[in-house]
From TrEMBL:
<dbReference type="Pfam" id="PF12799">
    <property type="entry name" value="LRR_4"/>
</dbReference>
<dbReference type="GO" id="GO:0005737">
    <property type="term" value="C:cytoplasm"/>
</dbReference>
<dbReference type="InterPro" id="IPR001611">
    <property type="entry name" value="Leu-rich_rpt"/>
</dbReference>
<dbReference type="InterPro" id="IPR003591">
    <property type="entry name" value="Leu-rich_rpt_typical-subtyp"/>
</dbReference>
<dbReference type="Pfam" id="PF13855">
    <property type="entry name" value="LRR_8"/>
</dbReference>
<keyword id="KW-0433">Leucine-rich repeat</keyword>
<keyword id="KW-0677">Repeat</keyword>
<protein>
    <recommendedName>
        <fullName>Leucine-rich repeat-containing protein 57</fullName>
    </recommendedName>
</protein>
<dbReference type="InterPro" id="IPR050216">
    <property type="entry name" value="LRR_domain-containing"/>
</dbReference>
<dbReference type="InterPro" id="IPR025875">
    <property type="entry name" value="Leu-rich_rpt_4"/>
</dbReference>
<dbReference type="InterPro" id="IPR032675">
    <property type="entry name" value="LRR_dom_sf"/>
</dbReference>
Amino acid sequence: HLSRGPRMGNSALRAHVETAQKTGVFQLKDRGLTEFPSELQKLTSNLRTIDLSNNKIESLPPMIIGKFTVLKSLSLNNNKLTVLPEELCNLKKLEMLSLNNNHLRELPSTFGQLAALKTLSLSGNELRALPPQLCSLRHLDVVDLSKNQIRSIPDIVGELQVIELNLNQNQISQISVKISCCPRLKVLRLEENCLELSMLPQSILSDSQICLLAVEGNLFEIKKLRELEGYDKYMERFTATKKKFA
């Protein structure tokens, strides 16, 4: 059964399901849904995209969610999820997972099994730490952990394969020097955290791949960054990259 919002009739849902069967895309936003539509079980082998953003969904059904064998993109932004079922991690083809503005405190222990994942958005949740499971994901390019409650970045960060890591608007006051070892990390966003200049590993400037370091809104003046050893090396990478994208 489907708990319907005020503007959602059965026939409307049926029409959506029929369309999705043909297109492989199921999109139902802003409908006040409180549950993941059970009707979607019929489409587990069709759907490549599911977008149920801006609803009131509190949980994902473990029995159904892991069966979407061809699903590439799942968006559940602006819902009321507090926990993700382990079964979600069976989605071997999933490349994009967007869960901004929910109430998640952690990721399932098996999250590292989402082997195809490239983009992960968890902005505006209640994470208190960098999820270590992310280090197993070999194809992860972009991770957005902004607007959480992360206080420090531990040594495991050096194993992350990401190209862009967004940690804006957390409570970070400590960063492991291992962040300089990230093999692919080019963009590091640390705006509006609790960093003292002395807590920013100098090796980020002198000895990493990072060519965009965003640190506005911390406990030091940006111009002080220019006085650090390695700043010239960082600027060389920054300028070279900017030329490439210009």
